[in-house]
Design goal:
This protein has 300 residues and is of the alpha/beta class. It contains eleven helices and eight strands.
């Protein structure tokens, strides 16, 4: 018997797009047998796995709609500068994120075993430099792995569990396809929030170059993972939702528009599904596919 997996990517505050996509899947009577989530996808995935019905998804939408910047990311430029100068582990305190995750994890699902659908949260351990998955041990509390998975490095502090220093799973697996395959998925609905990563001109500045280096690495990893699905014989539904690509990390004013955009994107795909198609991720009119003299792309 086949096993359907929902794979929810990271996306920070653009995670509201996933809520709309999940609403669309529910409206089309498509239900997951397992859910895998990274970062914002872990937050949404944990909620969905505990309450996989249409009414509960509306409640999840309300959580996103009522979240404010100061709740998720407390502080200002002065407090961030102070934390940096005093050697803290992050520019912001992680208490706001923990409170937000607590809102998303209902009182009736404190442990992985309390969820109605198996759920796996993806984290990255800074000490052992490896990806660590939570969800295979059912008596594990949900809160810390989900907070760790969504703790964007530098901005939010890592979470320490049993001597491990766990941070955002998006560092190593922003779209955790491999996790779903390892746990027996035969059909994958991949909700991928990666925005276009190609640029039409040179990137300048230390931080922009560092970020572009990271997204380039993650894009190549994603392409490899998508090809792994094809080799495994599983059915792939890759829905890449690129709306609001330039949204500021601290902007929580566009939540309803993003929920609507996510639902429309998934509706559009489900109205004319094209499984096992790896969609172009970065080729746009603004960033034509060019090669340096003598160079060829790894993935044509």
């Amino acid at each position: 018997m086949g096993k359907i997996a929902f794979v929810l990517s990271g996306g920070a505050n653009r995670g509201a797009l996933e809520v709309g996509a999940l609403q669309s899947l529910a409206a089309h009577n498509i239900r997951a047998d397992l859910v895998v989530g990274t970062s914002a996808g872990a937050l949404n995935g944990a909620y969905y796995a505990g309450h996989p019905d249409t009414a509960s998804l509306q409640q999840l939408a309300q959580i996103w709609l009522t979240t404010r910047r100061e709740e998720a990311f407390p502080g200002n430029q002065l407090t961030m500068a102070f934390r940096f100068l005093t050697g803290r582990d992050s520019l912001m305190d992680g208490g706001g994120l923990r409170n937000l995750v607590n809102r998303c994890l209902a009182a009736d699902t404190p442990l992985f075993s309390h969820l109605k659908i198996p759920f796996y949260a993806v984290t990255a351990d800074l000490i052992s430099a490896q990806t660590i998955i939570f969800g295979d041990e059912p008596d594990t509390p949900l809160i810390d792995p989900v907070v760790a998975s969504a703790s964007f490095p530098i901005v939010l502090p890592p979470v320490e569990i049993d001597g491990f220093q766990l941070s955002d799973g998006g560092v190593t697996a922003v779209v955790p396809i491999e996790v779903a395959l390892q746990r027996g998925a035969t059909e994958l609905y991949v909700v991928d929030l990666e925005p276009p990563t190609a640029r039409s001109e040179a990137v300048r500045g230390v931080l922009p170059i560092a970020m572009q280096t990271l997204v380039t690495s993650l894009r190549e990893q994603l392409l490899d993972d998508l090809r792994d699905v094809a080799r495994s014989g599983a059915t792939l539904h890759h829905v890449n939702i690129t709306a609001f690509p330039d949204l500021d990390l601290f902007d929580f004013t566009r939540m309803q528009a993003m929920i609507d955009a996510g639902r429309i994107a998934m509706d559009t795909y489900l109205d004319a599904p094209r499984p096992n198609i790896i969609r172009p991720l970065t080729v746009t009119a603004q960033a034509p596919r060019r090669m340096p003299k003598g160079g060829r792309p790894l993935h044509p």
